[in-house]
Amino acid sequence: MTTSRRRFLKLSAGGLVGLSVGGISLKAFANEHVDPESPQAKALQYVHKSEKDGAICSNCALVQGADGEEWRPCAIFPGKLVNKDGWCAAYAKKPA
User: Residue ranges of the chain with pLDDT lower than 70?
Assistant: First the structure.
């Protein structure tokens, strides 16, 4: 079966929209804490309690949710929650 370029582009665009919406809904339902022993957490050196001065998940640009919550969703760990006092190697300070 031959797929036209136009059909391919339509399917690709639809897939991207689906992934984006799906990612948002997964973040909304995050309820499991990140396990520091999981392979992804180990690769990113995630810890629940940061030892880096001033670098904590609550002031990272990748963490979402309301300030003051102890456990919040993070773009790096979809479907999981990180501790507000945690840290990982993907840390990026929020712009002022």
Answer: 1-3, 8-30
